Recover the amino acids of this structure.
């Protein structure tokens, strides 16, 4: 197996072109000088968790945020680093592959070499197993040639996803010590970054000098918070899926006799489904977060679809496209229990694919087929009763996921992943850390039902349902219109969190300047009174709105 | 329903760009002057069928082939047409939608207007039902604006696919007479073009002056013969599917624990699967034509896959991608019968999608799941017995078809479809007409197991199987590398059939010039002797090789 890693391979003409693409670095990361401003320590998102988290992360919690500054930035107390010692860094793919993963390696390699040509980057072969067994491949420019801007994780491979048990963390520690690593970079999603946070704490406790860095690379888009606005891979996945959903929309509109029930990979939360809806405008989407918030049963959902089918038939429309996030099933407890039982019974059946392991379970539950069946049964009933007068209901079911995961990464993901190596130490400060059966873990971010992306969906949902405003973004392009398109949800959401934190600090500084010793009694009184009520208001809001902070 | 046809719609940036693309016409179709050379009448491919075909098509069989000539061509007896009267033409989408269909309408519209601005093009709304009911939409440049180079059939829609019963052909006749049509253009696949051929004969018999024209637009790529080298839509479908297959390959190689069983839409024959294999190099493909030729049972096929899995595991490869054409099931009679029975039994089951109608049956049979199950069972058995020592076998099943059909058409399909309107009267001369339960029908072309495309596959099959030479052509591009790529099978197959017919005629002319009255006895004797044996040889070959001619 290992002999195949890192070998050069033949690229198609498009792959060749892409391999020559040079991602652009943000200004603060260009050049050989690093300018860092250390900000405040961070707070936890839920005040009630702070004790548990403080106990779990005594060495790593509350570190200052590091801001990288562009050359022209005027910050008096910036740390300016012009010479870096040669360092040794290990990097490992953990968890499901996402487009752009290779660029994290490439970007890190270039950054290390730019600062000191003697620095070394070691790739662990075969995921965390390679880390435990110390199987490495030294990354060189030659090795990277046919992997730059390419999809998959096949440069290094990945297998098991966990670094959790005592045996595993000890093996990881031993590997870092044996290989004299200054840093260990873990590329992965929510689970892997939780592991990274715990590993960092474990290393600090063990006085191991290896810094652990988690890089949020996941197609689910659920590793979001105030500091991490997007995940590597999400943009590509949503574009590839939107292309396919749009094709199904065009197909539905041409044939005028099918309803497509399309289930989308994306784990528990519905970020992928929401983004794809905003990109391709199918008739309907049912978000897991909506189902949970409204406590809908499977029959509620099915009835909702049936009513939509009936309303559309009233306008002579006997086709449609409905998106179903794979995670929706977890939001309907009674169905989740039922399906588990059915799957058990059918495991010996002929046509049902057996589950491979626990983690694959969600993608194996064919919710779209169950819903299509329930809707068909109900529409046939309504047809007989005469309440529904449209064509016989016809569903075609799809599951989109695996076929998008291996895609060539979009320009956005190429650029984002390439610049990603600088997000250091973020995992333990990410804010959304919380408890989960005794062990604090990063919670995957939900779709924020109060957020702007969801608001955009709600504003258009009726029109999407009835008017077939299908939008076809087309296949992923690397040139011309659409090539530089960003995710809709990324564009509409409030993103400048850190900018606003800065603005607030400016206000506070201004007040401090105005109210210096020597100012008039009136000014001081006014300031005291106003600030007392400001503090009051914020304290009240903070304690009541914590639940909504997670995805702010 | 009808009110929505032809309405302008909002296009995505990429769609907008594409709508401004102007396909290029071949030189012979440029300008306002038409130069036509009428060639020989055609022969039928199977001599034994000639009587039946002659009886079915007394008015339309054996018409001369029309060659369109470029301005610079020197052909003394070319018909040169510089002025065309204004004409009225109807056009209808029949059969399953294929990318590029809209461009046939656009191309025809432009051609009509270039030759006479007063000509009229009427689109029938809702397929053949619209034809029978005379529901039309006059095509204008305004209407075409947002449909140029776009996928789907939604400009006019399509419903039922048949023009066959007495009632139907009479309704079609009445529509053409009532609407005073000079031509009726039927856009469709094998079935629709068979209908077109019969309709042309019926019209000629009825002394209706409407000319019937069939245009081969089908994603299956099975409407091929000496005169029709490719079908509109096939290029796009293969590119979109190849993108997805390649993504699955990358995914397999990254995760190293899955076997993907991917079934491809394409009807009875395996053109799509062959082309996708040549584009994306998955580990294995099982063509229906191979199965039929070798009389393989489902267990033979399953064993073949198991042996491959075992051989790969011997090289530490526990992943792979296997393509399965949907039509393979028809090549295994015992399984076809079995599955029909199982489907009947399971129709009341919870998770199996019921068949919508006879024509959808093939796409509803989940052959990939059956094969994955058989392979899994066998591999588990071998694992227990110790003959197989790899990882536990894990399959993920996919069906790719619907999600490709509605795609934006590739540049090739845009250009080809736009120029297509000139393929007149081809259907009844297409050569592969043959009998089918009393009614002559166009046979879908099989993959030619003696052809160059298949040879290319055989040459590489072992390497593809063992060496993971996955090739990722990437998403469909409209600019840069890959944008002008043609189907591999189209490039490697002998395509210049008409060119070679011309070359032969030149040889015959040369012999005639050399052996004119006045030539020497020796020359005449030599010529006679040689031509006698040439005639002999060709007669022998002709009567023995007819079976292989269909896809030549």
């Amino acid at each position: 197996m290992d002999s195949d890693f890192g070998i050069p391979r033949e690229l198609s003409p498009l792959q060749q072109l892409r391999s020559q693409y040079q991602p652009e670095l943000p200004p603060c990361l260009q050049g050989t000088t690093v300018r860092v401003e250390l900000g405040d320590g961070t707070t936890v998102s839920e005040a009630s968790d702070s004790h548990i988290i403080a106990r779990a992360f005594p060495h790593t919690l509350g570190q200052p945020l590091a801001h990288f500054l562009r050359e022209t930035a005027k910050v008096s107390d910036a740390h300016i680093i012009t010479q870096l010692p040669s360092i040794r860094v290990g990097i490992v793919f953990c968890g499901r592959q996402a487009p752009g993963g290779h660029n994290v390696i490439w970007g890190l390699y270039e950054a290390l070499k730019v600062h000191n040509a003697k620095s070394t980057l070691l790739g662990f072969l075969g995921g965390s197993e390679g880390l435990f067994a110390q199987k490495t491949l030294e990354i060189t420019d030659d090795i990277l040639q046919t992997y730059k801007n390419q999809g998959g994780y096949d440069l290094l491979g990945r297998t098991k996803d966990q670094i959790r048990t005592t045996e595993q963390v000890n093996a990881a520690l031993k590997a870092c010590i044996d290989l004299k690593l200054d840093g260990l970079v873990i590329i992965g999603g929510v689970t892997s970054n939780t592991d990274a946070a715990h590993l960092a704490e474990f290393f600090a406790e063990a006085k191991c000098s290896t810094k652990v860095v988690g890089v949020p690379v996941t197609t689910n888009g659920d590793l979001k918070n105030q500091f991490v606005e997007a995940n590597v891979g999400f943009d590509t996945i949503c574009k590839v899926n939107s292309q396919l959903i749009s094709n199904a929309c065009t197909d539905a509109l041409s044939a005028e006799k099918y309803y497509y029930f399309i289930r989308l990979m994306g784990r528990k939360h519905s970020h992928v489904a929401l983004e794809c809806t905003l990109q391709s405008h199918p008739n309907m989407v049912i978000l897991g977060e909506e189902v949970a918030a409204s406590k809908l049963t499977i029959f509620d959902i099915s009835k909702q679809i049936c009513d939509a089918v009936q309303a559309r038939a009233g306008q002579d429309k006997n086709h449609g496209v409905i998106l179903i996030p794979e995670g929706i099933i977890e939001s309907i407890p009674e169905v989740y229990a039922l399906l588990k039982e059915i799957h058990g019974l059918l495991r010996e059946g002929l046509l049902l694919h057996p589950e491979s392991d626990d983690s694959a379970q969600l993608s194996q539950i064919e919710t779209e087929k169950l819903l299509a069946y329930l809707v068909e049964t109900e529409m046939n009933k309504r047809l007989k009763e005469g309440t529904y007068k449209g064509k016989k209901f016809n569903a075609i079911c799809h599951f989109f996921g695996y076929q998008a995961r291996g895609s060539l990464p979009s320009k956005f993901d190429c650029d984002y992943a390439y610049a990603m190596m600088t997000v250091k130490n973020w995992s333990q400060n990410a804010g959304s850390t919380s408890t989960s059966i005794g062990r604090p873990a990063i919670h995957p971010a939900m779709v924020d039902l109060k957020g702007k992306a969801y608001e955009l969906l709600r504003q258009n949902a009726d029109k999407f349902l009835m008017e077939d405003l299908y939008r076809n973004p087309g296949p992923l392009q690397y040139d011309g219109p659409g090539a530089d398109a960003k995710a809709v949800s990324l564009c509409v959401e409030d993103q400048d969190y850190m900018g606003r934190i800065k603005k607030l600090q400016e206000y506070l500084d201004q007040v401090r300047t105005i109210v210096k010793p020597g100012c008039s009694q009136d000014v001081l009184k006014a300031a005291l009174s106003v600030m007392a009520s400001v503090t009051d208001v914020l304290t009240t809001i903070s304690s009541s709105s914590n639940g909504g902070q997670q995805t702010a």
Observations:
- Chain B is about 45% helix and 10% strand.
- Chain B has a mean pLDDT of 85.
